[in-house]
Fold each of these.
Amino acid sequence: MTVSSPSPSPSASLSHLVLIPSYNPGPKVYDTVRSARAQWTPVWVVVDGSTDDSAAGLQAMAAQDPGLHVIVLPKNVGKGAAVLHGIDRAAAQGFTHVLTMDSDGQHPAQLIPDFMARSSAEPAAMVLGVPVFAADAPRLRVNGRKVSNGWANLETLWAGIGDSLFGFRVYPIEPLRRVMHGQRWMRRFDFDPEAVVRMCWLGVKPVNVPATVKYFRADEGGVSHFNYLRDNLLLSWMHSRLFLGFVLRLPVLLARRLSGGR
Ligand SMILES: Nc1nc2c(ncn2[C@@H]2O[C@H](COP(=O)(O)OP(=O)(O)O)[C@@H](O)[C@H]2O)c(=O)[nH]1
Ligand SMILES: [Mg+2]
């Protein structure tokens, strides 16, 4: 691990932060955090019970960089739970919006200012990255998301979700906290799709923006914690409960749509 001094900080936002949940991310985390810091201040990382040496490495970076804040959770609680921990703290400090991004270098840090600008232009909306895959992206993952997207669009009566799974997004913090504190799910890989569906149910408008996504081979430092069996079961259970929620809300969603809302 190398720790170099950060590039000059962009001026600090008091409303919008970048939040990176991180679990045993591999060496790409340092470049990921550096790239985010080159684009935005502040950047927070939630180290979620990682058992590699990334907590110490990231804390060493933060010690030299006042624009980087590292929160270390003692036990692994899952991506959604780590985001919730971060946004509860961010809300307590007065932040209103959060851009979430992965810790493993797959997301386009260079788009952070553009996503933040779109959020500032429409603060009540959520800004959703829509993945643009390179030709070498795993077919199983690319096709698998079509299934999740189909369900998410049905569950929201086609409210305009461009992608249900991609985690590079800006959320208004208050409705996201309301949704998450309202139930016990969305704590692991079910976070991103359930968040976007439930935010739509609350009337938060999706704004879709294309964003390139990279897939790294293991020998390039690529790391994935997505477990096909465990996480596809988790996502199937998630869409089952969302479908039930959709059926119960259907009269409200239809009435809203017929009156010109989303
Ligand atoms: N806090 C936390 N973040 C996680 C956990 N698992 C995954 N993540 C985050 O979610 C991102 C996506 O997970 P990843 O394993 O890369 O899955 P994939 O990109 O879908 O193959 C990671 O880069 C992390 O930022 C976890 O258990 N805790
Ligand atoms: Mg990944």
Note: The first strand starts at residue 16 and ends at 22.
Amino acid sequence: MSGVPEPQLEAQAQPRPQIVYIAGYGRSGSTVLDIVLGNHPEVFGAGELNMFLPDLADDGSCSCGQPYDQCDEWKPVLGELRRTYLNLTDTSFVADVYRSESTSGLLASPPRRRADDRRAGNLWRRFYPLLAESTGARIIVDSSKTARFSSRRLRRLAKDASLDVKVIHLTRDPRAVAFSEQRRGNNDRLESGGGGSAFGGLLRPLVGWMVANLAVDAHRLRLADVPVLHIRYEDLASEPGTAITKISGFLDIDPQPLTDRIVSDAGFDPGHGVRGNRLRRGSADSSEEPPAIRLRYDAAWASGLDRPLRLVSLVSYPLARRYGYDVLRR
Ligand SMILES: [Zn+2]
């Protein structure tokens, strides 16, 4: 145990928000979807909330560039949380919450796991109503996904925190995901002057893609009362109006504020999220605000579909087929 006493939670006066959890693997367009939905007047796109405490402990900032306790959206949430949790950014508390949501936490002893899960459940049960109150949103988007750092978070929110959760299971062609990750890996290797194998660089994201998407199926079995909508990133990017209308029906919101932005090509405001890729944060060396986001289908990976990628992607064949991707086809 962390040795820190559990805070006594006050009775909650805030209404219960609807949580929309974006599940799946990284590099699948979750930041884009978070941003798009966050442009609806009833929705706040909160970003990768599994990284909120680590980011806060690390003096990170909101995507608007302000430290969290200076951003108008986050400041009231932090003020309230810090009154309840004096240890909010203590290393041991951050580690307890992380362990309760990540795959690695499965290695902890059962009593420790129960204590971690209860601690995380209490925190998030308090957190989301505060965020809804501060932002004025009825719906909070959490794009933490279900990769190894957050594979068990959905259960913490739906079960331990008893929150009202709907899941959007976002998938992207595993070859596009592996290509994107390999390209990033190549850049990192070039910068560090190191080498690396093409097969190894591709296998890791493909296995990660399978595990993260299978985690959604595992949650479906264990959380039968949590509604799940499957959306393919390719459909969102190539026919955004149709995809947004389908998602709006699932969330019971009017699609028009979002579809109007597509029709007028106004773009989507990156908002005030936790982490997310450079779409949300602009370039790291620029002090300028990140530009409005537009949905565009990026098919660059298809031209980079070389022999290693074609061969290694076969491991994902059965699961990819279930989501409507034919990795045998060029
Ligand atoms: Zn902000």
Note: The beta strands are 18-23, 43-45, 139-142, 164-171, 228-232.
